[in-house]
Amino acid sequence: MCNHHDKKAFRSQDKELNELQGAIDRRKFLTKTSMGLGAMALGSLLGTERVFASPIENTNSLRTGLPHFTPRAKRIVYLFQSGGPSQFETFDYKPKLVDLFGTELPDTVRNGQRLTGMSADQTSLPIAPSIYNFKQYGESRQWVSELMPYTAEVVDDLCFIKSLYTEQINHDPAITFFQTGHQLPGRPSIGSWLSYGLGSENQNLPAFIVLVSKNGSGQPLYTRLWGNGFLPTEHQGVQFRSGKDPVLYLNNPENYDGEDRREMLDYLKKLNDIQYDVYGDPEIKARMSQYEMAYRMQSSVPELTDISGEPDHIYEMYGKDSRDPGTYAANCLLARKLLEKDVRFVQLYHQGWDQHSSLPNGIKNQCKNTDQATAALIKDLKQRGLLEDTLVIWGGEFGRTVYSQGELTTKNYGRDHHPRCFTVWMAGAGVKSGFSYGETDDFSYNITENPVHVHDFHATMLHLAGIDHERLTFKHQGRRYRLTDVHGHVVKDILA
To answer: Is the peptide bond before 67 cis (omega within 30 degrees of 0)?
Structure first.
């Protein structure tokens, strides 16, 4: 609680702060700011707009010279399906498997590739065809499972990549690899790299926002998946939650108003300025930037996260769950609102795609919970003219095996993790529509044409955002790091 005496205390301490700041050794001050003074002198000779101005209309970008070229995607939304959706029951149609029901996976197909500990001790690896039907849809005649009727309506807007592969066979390293470009924790996430490189297009919202479907079950999600790693902390993802407080600790305490908060932040800034002048730690500036962003978000977030005012036909398009904040459908609708406000990267996580047993029923429920809203987001962005410069991505951390994990029957089976080939799709800015790239063998076990590594996937994503993945780097502990680590190339064949 802030009262009249507290405000008087704030004002009386201003004098003490000024005296403390003036007491900093003059020689130390000149030493620490010599480069800054030199830059100012250079600016006076060459013109400040040439020295200090960013080449893009974005004052928050920390990387001059970005974007490296004209971006096709001004914003990205990544619909991450955590757990590993089965390509057999969604988009990779394999009709020849029907005649091979229950037969052993040929050694020539497996070729000694490792299995997880969950199926490595099975005495049999029986082939399990999907029990669900496929049909061709749209002018592009793409094959889609009957479990995805709404996605089938938008296939002519989608670019399928059926030959993605990863080196990681277990969930934690695999999802960490997809989100950060490395299997071990500690690296910056995709959104953090984009925030660091390009900054925010909206001064009242973070560049990187995260949405997680509520009541999710399955493999756990960790905040480090949207963490900043070794990048400045202001670039970490900000999670928006359903409920009274969409962003934790954003609201003012009881009996505390906006004027109080502004006065407190101004006082705190003076303290931080003194600390920065003494120590020169860039994290001090990052902290100050986060405080100011939180202050601006106090007015922007409540209105933005309130989806109650959407017209009925929008709710009908996204599905009945869209009226329930925190569901996948409601988060897809909220993602559209964030994209309208030019949030650069929206990461949406949905758990539950890990069906080691009872897959037919489990994946049916997953598709029922996500299919309509996913397609609605595509349609909604398109009708608003946003799809042409928004990149939409759908996919998980790996695929599933052609053989059944556990008992196989005509109506029930499970599938283990399979990193060697699986399907994701992109839509919107800069990618071909109604297009399928890459091929797998008749068992969807090996790639037969156009393999796409995770680093290739990341390189292509950054390319669409106007970034050369080899040039967006950050020096940490003596080495320059990047999202794509030490390799990766842009998949030019999928670019429009």
So the answer is: yes
Question: 131 Cβ partners below 8 Å, 6+ apart?
Answer: 360, 410, 411
- Model confidence at 303, in pLDDT bands (50, 70, 90)? confident
| Tokens encoding 230 | 């070794």
* DSSP letters spanning 34-89: HHHHHHHHHHHHH-HHHHT--SSS-TT-SSTT-SSS--S-SEEEEEEETT---STT
Residue type, 357: S
Looking at the predicted structure, is the pLDDT value of residue 298 above 60? Answer: yes
SS3 411: coil
Mean pLDDT of the residues in the chain:
87
State the Cα angle at 191 between 185 and 195, rounded to 5°. Answer: 120
Domains of the chain from N-terminus onward: 4-51 (no CATH), 75-250+307-494 (3.40.720)
Tell me how far the alpha carbon of residue 196 is from its chain's centroid: 14
- The answer for residues whose C-beta is within 8 angstroms of residue 366's C-beta and 6 or more apart is 81, 85, 352, 353
pLDDT reported for residue 43: 40
First-to-last alpha carbon distance for the chain, in angstroms, is 57
> What are 150's two structure tokens?
């709404």
Average pLDDT over residues 161-185: 97
395: closest CA among 106, 175, 67, 146? 175
Q: Point out which residues pair with 399 in neighbouring strands.
A: 418
Residue 44 has which token pair? 């006076």
- Cβ neighbour number for residue 166 with a 10 Å cutoff: 24
Using alpha carbons only, what angle is made at residue 334 by residues 333 and 336, rounded to the nearest 5 degrees? 65
Total count of residues recorded for the chain: 496
- Give 231's pLDDT tier (boundaries 50, 70, 90): very high
* Cβ(82)–Cβ(353) below 8 Å: yes
Of the candidates 65, 124, 163, 14, the residue with the CA atom closest to the CA atom of residue 493: 163
How far apart are the C-alpha atoms of 408 and 361, rounded to whole Å? 14
Under DSSP, the state recorded for 415 is -
Q: Label the pairing between strands 345-350 and 208-212.
A: parallel
What backbone torsions phi and psi does residue 328 show, to the nearest 5 degrees? -60, -45
Which of 61-65, 86-90, 440-444, 471-475 shows the lowest per-residue confidence on average (mean pLDDT)? 61-65
Return the closest-CA partner of residue 415 out of 96, 105, 99, 161: 105
Least confident range of 6-15, 219-228, 460-469 = 6-15
Mean pLDDT of 237-258: 77
Sign of CA dihedral 69, 72, 76, 78: negative
Strand-pair partners of 426: 159, 393
